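subagent[fold] <- orchestrator: predict structure for attached chain, return tokens only, no commentary.
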Amino acid sequence: MDQFETRSVTGLQVDGRTVSGLAIPYGKPSQVLSPGFIETIARGAAGEGIRTRKNIRALLEHDPSQPLAKTPKLKLTETDEGVRYQFSLPLTSAGNDALELIKDGTIQGASFRFSTPEDGDEWTRSGGTVHRTIKKMEISEISLVSDPAYLDTTASVRSYSAFIEGEQGRDAETIKRIIATFEW
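subagent[fold] -> orchestrator:
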């Protein structure tokens, strides 16, 4: 599980210096992710990981030089809806910047960084669309972000390439060349 991926969601709440929101939505299809698949996180996929991992961080814009919190001060709770987060912004320049950026609407959501074990996802094709279902994941980070949209990741491209290669008998280099011609 050393290949990490990043996804973002919109919506966060602020009460004083306490920030909270839905970090990981369960059962909701993503937008089309590069290189052209839709992803859904299965209910319970993150549960074990948030209960056992001891060092999950909250950052500003995925920047490790701008820490906001880490477990146990970063509270992660699994619900039927997904994984919710809550933490108090620190009295630091990063915490103060985050608070101001939330207040003025620049920061509009949260993003999460994760990895999946070898058997943690499942790839299928339906009606010409490739679907990925995350069945198990380990969260390493929650970030407050200004652009809460799904992001391209190299791990996704490798996983997607492996699925297509197995499905069509093409090698990974051919898949990479095909993907490189897509316009996103």
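orchestrator: received. Logging for downstream: The longest strand covers residues 18-25. The chain is about 20% helix and 40% strand.
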